[in-house]
Known about the structure:
Blueprint: H1 2-13, H2 19-67, H3 74-94, E1 101-109, E2 114-124, E3 135-145, E4 151-159, H4 169-186, E5 194-201, E6 245-246, H5 258-265, E7 302-303, E8 321-324, H6 327-335, H7 345-356, H8 360-366, E9 382-390, E10 401-403, E11 406-414, E12 420-428, H9 440-456, E13 459-466, H10 474-484, E14 490-493, H11 498-510
Parallel strand pairs: 4-5, 4-9, 6-7, 9-13, 13-14
Antiparallel strand pairs: 1-2, 2-3, 5-8, 10-11, 11-12
InterPro entries: Tad_N, vWFA_dom_sf
Organism: Hirschia baltica (strain ATCC 49814 / DSM 5838 / IFAM 1418)
Protein name: Putative Flp pilus-assembly TadG-like N-terminal domain-containing protein
Amino acid sequence: MRSIQKTLKQFLNATNAGVAPMFALFLTVILFIIGFTIDFRRMDSAKMHLQAATDSAVLAAARAYLTSSVQVKETKRQEDSQKIASDYLTANLLSSSNNFENNQIQLVFKEDGEIVGNASTKIKLIFGGLFGKSDVVLPALAAATVGDSRKLEIVLVLDTSGSMSSQNRMKQLRTASINFVNSVFDNAVYERTVQVGVVPWNATVNINMDRPGTWDASPGPAIHNSNYGNGTNQVTSFQDFTENLYPPGFSDFGSYSDSDIDDDFGSSGWLGCITATKDERKISSSGNVTPLTDVPPSKMKWPARKVAGWDPNSDCPSPMLAMSQSRPQIIKKLNQLNPSGNTHADIGLMWGYRMFSQQANWNNFFGYNSDTKPDSFHSTKSRKIMIMLTDGENTATNSEGYSYYGWCTYTNHYNKWGRYTGSTKDCEVPKGINKDEISNNDLNSLMLDACEVIRSKDVELFTIALDLHSYYDSTAIALLRECAGSDSHAYNIKGNELDETFQELASKALRLSK
């Protein structure tokens, strides 16, 4: 600036005839530089105001879009969000000292859930008119991610073993899982983009299930407040699942007539629990596991689970529900959860994995239709999420009775004087498991194999260890961490943290962010 002042002074003191035109030219350049500097600073300030206003407008539109009911038509949701963005942009620019004109913003709703706002405004130039440009249009760009528009396919693999009756865990689980379902439905980006399956498991699963419902985002029933649920088998099966049975035992598939079922299960009938069929899972005599696949078992038949004793359906969990788009149906299912039986986590994982499969046999078995059937693994059109929760380590069934992997009986022996001399144990396991009896270590190996296979299919697998002691239950905690594949996907929490954890998982599922 000092050099400009010095040069100007020299021009003013000059006396020869050629100075005047040169001075006029120089003065023009000086005025151009000054004008350009002033207009540039105004444009720079205007750009900052425009960018801030655009950011606010897009975030306001994103919030409105998210909180809009999913029952509102998509075109209406977008129109309402567009209006809010325009109103926010204009209000923010009017509050500025700049004279903005022709303020515009256009929203683009992308398939990945991102909302992009392209904004523009016009400001007048103070000196630009001297050079033939009286105004300039300024652009701005902002974006907000309101969720992921890909379909969410979620399966809740929930431990309903007997220990879940302790410390109100089942009540806490029911509340947290239902709140989770409400969150994902309330914040669904589009209609028919959320479906949730439920696999209640203990030492087996129950296949006597309802057909998964089509889209219904209306509020579901109130949360059932009992620790024991409102009943374990309140379903009307869409097909006769006794056609998928053969008599207990693993020698051959056999036939299972209605009269035989009545004889075995009495007046209560077969409630829906099964044991493993031939070669469904394979373990060598040394404990090596053959990797899980979603190839359907031969004949799609399983032995009916018949427990020795007074109740042939003892410890049978509530039926599964394949991935449903009906919020009321999912909440009704979660309200049925009832604690009983032992812990075989791999069973829940395996059946949850099958719910994601596109295999036609599984689609028919679970009752999917063209709207509800899952996308293929690795599809870019959907996200598959599995949440597996348990409160304990895997426990083989060593007492008399049935688990998924077989049954054991005890025979008492007496001498000729009637004195008890001991007992012998007789166990039977399905063909494919080349051992006399399945152990806790075998269950752990089966579980970790299932976890690895599930993750390899681009299923986002989360594990929740509930009320496990860091010292006494360290093995179970480590297994669940290994199952999830990373610390960020493995939770080790107390019962009173369950609702908060499920809400965090809902946010991860929806990918809500700014």
